[in-house]
Amino acid sequence: MGGKQSRGFSNKELNEVSVSQRRKSAGRDEQPSLSSAAERIRRHTTVHFGYSILNLAMQALDETPSELWELRELQKLNLSMNCLCSLPPALGALNNLVILNLWGNNLSSLPPEISLLKKLRVLFACRNRLSEVPEELGSCTCLEVLSLANNQITGLPGSLAAMHNLTKLNLSHNRIAHIPTCVYSMKGLVFLHLACNRLETIADQIQDLVNLKILIVEGNSIHTLPKTLCFLESLELLNVDFNDLQNVPMELYLLSRLGRLACHPLDKGLHIIHNPLLKPIQEVLQGGLSALYNYLKPT
């Protein structure tokens, strides 16, 4: 999650916290105070570049220690690669969080109280079992990076249109049939990843994303590209491979920053050759992107 990571919990320490939770649930008098239980967790936090960080990744947690939510000073929390099925409403108590990493759990939902994380700038919730995104997430208007990849999401709530600071959005490997309308209001987007969904079209509103530099929609069922896509003159990487494209818009030559035909997934340029393109486009592409642009330009 960046920066110096805190030392992992030992099995003994995790058991101690777990025991304290069970005792608290049973209401026994001999339980340690909440502050002392929380203090055992606090000892594993680090401060790096001024941020208070706690790394609980890969601890085989199937629930979070209740004392965790007392550490309100936390700014970066890594709960990735555990076995969490849910998060409690108490998540909202960590209102100083800037980065929250939930990657690789079994989460089927995010609690509405996530709306209380007003300072949150980065949220990784990829590789979970999310089928929907709470409307309350739209209150996290400071978000700059949002990854919801590898879930079971079919759409996004309209409230996310308020995320004007969002620059990177990853919705790849979901079940999205139409680009959510709220995405077109995210004017700050520089990176938009929608690969391996169920898209068949891209709406004309794509032209509203004027700052977009990277657009990845490979592995869908898109059969045509809108002319308005060609007005995104900041595009440096456009990946439309493995779709159902037979032709391209005549205005494609306006995307001058693409520079070349690209093959490697991370290369800048235009990724398009893996489509059932018709002649003469298919033949013209053998001469590279410049040949295609020369062909498309009006004489």
From TrEMBL:
Keyword Phosphoprotein: no
Keyword Zinc part of the UniProt annotation: no
PROSITE patterns to which the protein is assigned, alphabetical: LRR
Alphabetized Pfam families for the sequence: LRR_1, LRR_14, LRR_8
Keywords attached to this entry: Leucine-rich repeat, Repeat
Gene Ontology cellular component list: cytoplasm
Name of the molecule in the record: Disease resistance R13L4/SHOC-2-like LRR domain-containing protein
Originating organism: Perca flavescens (American yellow perch)
First and last residue of the signal peptide: none
Parts of the chain that traverse the membrane: none
Domain Disease resistance R13L4/SHOC-2-like LRR per the UniProt entry, residue ranges: 66-150
Record-linked InterPro entries: Leu-rich_rpt (IPR001611), Leu-rich_rpt_typical-subtyp (IPR003591), LRR_dom_sf (IPR032675), LRR_domain-containing (IPR050216), LRR_R13L4/SHOC2-like (IPR055414)
SMART domains in alphabetical order: LRR_BAC, LRR_TYP
Residue ranges, annotated region (Disordered): 1-37
